[in-house]
Design goal:
With 429 residues, this protein is an alpha/beta fold. It folds into 2 domains: 299 residues, Alkaline Phosphatase, subunit A; 64 residues. The protein has 11 helices and 10 strands. It is globular. The chain starts with 7 loop residues before the first strand and ends in a 20-residue tail after the last helix.
């Protein structure tokens, strides 16, 4: 019998998850077979309002490993060999300075559908979730700031994620919601859970039958809209099947304490990073996105400048420029702390979690309303990309080329994504 990632005890009513036992290959010991290779994970961390153009980007005349780390990235100095910056990427269809992260991970054209004023396509994380999500309780997890995108410069959407129909995927607002989703125990008896699930399926069947009856005699346009509705129903069915698959399997244990509800800004991001580490460590999901706060980050470090005004520091500079530069350093400090934890967290085979994660950190906006040269940092060993370099690509290179490179690097079957024209050869080892 093949060894699976986790074993279960099964009764007539429940599955009970066993801990990761050495006998099942989760620790190397004398005479044991080699442990199971840890899975790949994909993480996207997005922030709004861009960066400080003059002090965040390395000099493009210093490509390669021997570049000078700019002021805004100095807190990352201890990890310089373990991340790469990619300069010159952009989403050519993203032309709205206040659109934030709406098309950051999809590269879609807002006007791609005639007669529609808003269009989006699947985001890169959801492409990975379709493949990776088969193995975990959560196909993907989408996190937001505790205030749900209040003054954080992210634009339309319910998280960074957009499904295969280009519809927004709802996110969890703040560390407390994320913690409960991952680790809170469901004490509802199994029979009651099954009855609740059966009721939801019954309602879904009724809705589906009514929709089929409605479709008869509809015009072409309305019929297309109804087909999209059918796809939404199928998505719900998939989620119900996932709930059924994991029914009775307890949530994993964690040493993390329940976070307080009033967290905001810098401390909120720190705790959310801890929760993301725990989500990967327990293999609850292998795909994560986090739409980070900006306004509360500023106030939490004593900056009394509105984030929109800060992003337009070029016209008046002064305290707005100082706020922007302080913001950059604080975000870099937080990212450096996350990389520390990825490196110190051990996998079952004693390798580092860092070695199996591909992490992208950035924004769809450069500075102000400038949407060229999207700030892009890539780290982690999961995608097998070149790290430790200032990589400068040709002008007008699609950001989606970087996303396609990460997808293929972690083993996702994808030939293209968004407006990609191929992988970034500058990133491949």
């Amino acid at each position: 019998m093949s060894v699976q990632r986790r074993r279960f005890l099964q009764s007539s009513t429940a599955l009970i998850a066993l801990p990761f036992l050495e006998s099942f290959g989760f620790r190397r010991f004398a005479s044991a077979a080699a442990p199971i290779t840890p899975p790949k994970r994909l993480v996207f961390l997005g922030f709004g309002w861009g960066v400080t153009n003059e002090t965040w980007y390395p000099d493009i005349r210093q490509p390669g490993a021997d570049y000078e780390l700019p002021e805004g990235l100095q807190p990352l100095a201890r990890h310089k060999k373990d991340f790469s910056l990619v300069q010159g990427l952009w989403n050519k269809y993203s032309v709205e300075g206040h659109a934030g992260s709406t098309w950051w991970l999809s590269g879609a054209n807002k006007f791609a559908q005639p007669g529609q004023s808003m269009f989006n396509s699947i985001s890169v994380d959801q492409v990975a979730a379709q493949q990776f999500g088969k193995h975990t309780r959560f196909s993907s997890l989408e996190f937001n700031d505790a205030k749900g995108n209040s003054n954080s410069g992210h634009g339309d959407g319910l998280s960074l994620a957009w499904d295969m129909n280009g519809k927004p995927v709802a996110g969890l607002n703040g560390p407390l919601a994320a913690y409960h989703r991952l680790f809170s125990k469901d004490t509802t008896p199994i029979d009651e859970q099954r009855a609740r699930l059966a009721e939801r399926r019954s309602v879904l069947d009724t809705v589906l039958e009514n929709a089929r009856n409605l479709k008869r005699g509809l015009g072409k346009g309305d019929s297309a809209k109804l087909d999209e509705y059918f796809q939404s129903i199928r998505d719900i069915e998939t989620r119900l099947s996932k709930d059924e698959q994991w029914m009775g399997v307890p949530r994993p244990e964690t040493d993390l304490p329940e976070p307080p509800s009033e967290l905001a800004g810098k401390r909120e991001i720190e705790i959310m990073y801890d929760i993301m580490i725990a989500a990967m460590e327990t293999d609850s999901t292998r795909v994560l996105t986090y739409r980070q706060p900006v306004e509360t980050l500023l106030t939490s470090v004593g900056i009394d400048v509105h984030p929109h005004d800060m992003s337009h520091y070029i016209t008046t500079r002064g305290e707005k420029l100082a706020a922007s530069q302080r913001r950059d350093k604080t975000q870099s400090e937080l990212l450096a702390g996350l990389i520390d934890k990825l490196k110190s967290t051990k996998e079952a085979d004693d390798s580092r979690l860092f070695d199996h994660v591909a992490l992208a950190y950035g924004s769809n906006i450069r500075t102000g309303h400038d949407l060229t040269n999207c700030p892009t940092i890539l780290t982690g060993g999961g995608a097998g990309i070149k790290l430790g370099e200032n990589i400068v690509v040709e002008k007008d290179t699609p950001l989606c080329n970087a996303w396609l490179t990460l997808l293929q690097g972690v083993g996702v079957n994808a030939e293209r994504h968004g407006d990609s024209t191929g992988v970034l050869k500058e990133l491949t080892v």
